[in-house]
Amino acid sequence: MAKIRVTKKRSAINRSQNQKRTLIALGLKRIGQTVEHNATPNILGMVEKVKHLVSVEETK
Hints:
Order of helices and strands: EHEHE
Radius of gyration: 11 Å
CATH architecture: 2-Layer Sandwich
CATH class: Alpha Beta
Strand content: 25-35%
């Protein structure tokens, strides 16, 4: 299964509670923090909700 690397690039201040919870569910707390996830539909949907706050790259 493909993997993605998600990095938090922008702050969650003045964002909806839903977006803040999505970032925490992805495992992102600090700006610059990077996590790896399998590219499942659930994870890709969460990334889509906060795509303006994170950057995503595919890994092998």
